[in-house]
Fold this sequence. Notes:
Blueprint: E1 8-13, H1 20-28, E2 33-38, H2 47-63, E3 72-75, H3 78-82, H4 86-100, E4 104-106, H5 107-118, E5 122-127, H6 131-143, E6 147-153, H7 169-179, E7 186-189, H8 197-206, E8 211-213, H9 214-225, H10 238-244
Parallel strand pairs: 1-2, 1-3, 3-4, 5-6, 5-7, 7-8
Helix pairs in contact: 1-9, 5-9, 7-8
Amino acid sequence: MDISETPRLGVVVPPENPTAEPEFHRLVGDRMNVYGARFPVTPGMALRDMLETYNAVLPETLARFGGMRLDAAVVACSASHYLLSPEGDRRFCAELSGRTGFPVLSSTQAILAACEALGLTRLTLVSPYEPWLTDTSRRFWEEAGLTVVRAVVVPAGDEGRFNPYEVTTEAILRRVRERIPADGSALLFTGTGMYTLAALDELAHETGRVLLTSNLASAWWALRTTSAAPADPQGEHPLLRRLSRGAPASAA
């Protein structure tokens, strides 16, 4: 396909996030052109205040794409949308879509869409967040009607230090292998800034569970919303292809 005719995806990310755009590029390949816009820097601001600021300035941040035609946009910041209720998040995305004239979805709503499509009701949450934000995310999913079987927390480096951008593949694998329950629940790796693809590549060979991440679900949604998903799943990234095969019966 001519590059000028390739569907265009806008991705809004926090300023320090090093992960979202590279993961989107790997997941969608040459089926979409990915363009980034970054939330403003908020020096000295506490985490919760920063996340609330992101929600407040999101319409303005999306407007920075100017007159460029986009086919869809993803808000690649799960944490800020956990501060909203699932219904409030849905309404916010609908409002943004109406303003921009193209579909806009948060990574949290993309995960809910994937769960609905796959018939998932039980999740094990793998979280790089500090405790209050992990608890907030758990409440979000439970309010959406999902059962969170367990939250597996993955600190960055030393125990008790939390930074999604510094979580290593080795830390993810160690925590998941040690702590996931044996009930077959889907694994949801939350946060667009925690690099997960390498860990998922390994876990895909070890488990029959559904593996979901904020970026994986968002790419899955974007490809289908813009009709950019290949007719033959063999043409998709292996993790998307695995997701498209559907949920094992034990995960529902």
